[in-house]
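Lecture 7 notes: from sequence to structure.
We start with the chain below.
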Amino acid sequence: VRGQGNPDFPDREPKKYKLKLGKSVGVGRAPKCELAVALAGISNRHCELRLVEGEDGPRLVVRDLSSNGTGFSLPGAPLALLDKSTDTPVVDGSTIVLPMKVKSKGDQSQVRIVVGMGDKPTTTEPAREKGSKGAEAEDSEKEEEEEKKEE
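Predicted structure tokens for the same chain:
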């Protein structure tokens, strides 16, 4: 889990959690939460990530428990408000935003959490212009050029 946009949860080394089936990681303002975030619009236990039994084995889900809403997006998809108290499947690279609603116009504080699964953390990269080549294509072209030079 990597946080963005809040000094209490800065852009630094990701926090790692190993979940067992049926166990959860609480996200919220309360110090008892495994992932405590001190923002005024965040509920004491705002949302939770849980490992549940799915059709194909264990899967990670997020559940909104808040009064100000939790935003969620799959990689490459737009941000949407989670249905309250409903398990939503999470995949590698999913983004969780809290709170979705801010009480006053002057307070736009939110935290963005990017979920990475496995040993290597998820990273976020700026979006590329439409029609531009991705980093993998650029790396492949560089490798081809180097191979031609060696011949």
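Points to note: Strands lie at 2-4, 24-28, 35-36, 47-54, 57-64, 71-73, 80-81, 88-89, 95-98, 111-114. The CA atoms of residues 87 and 142 lie 44 Å apart.
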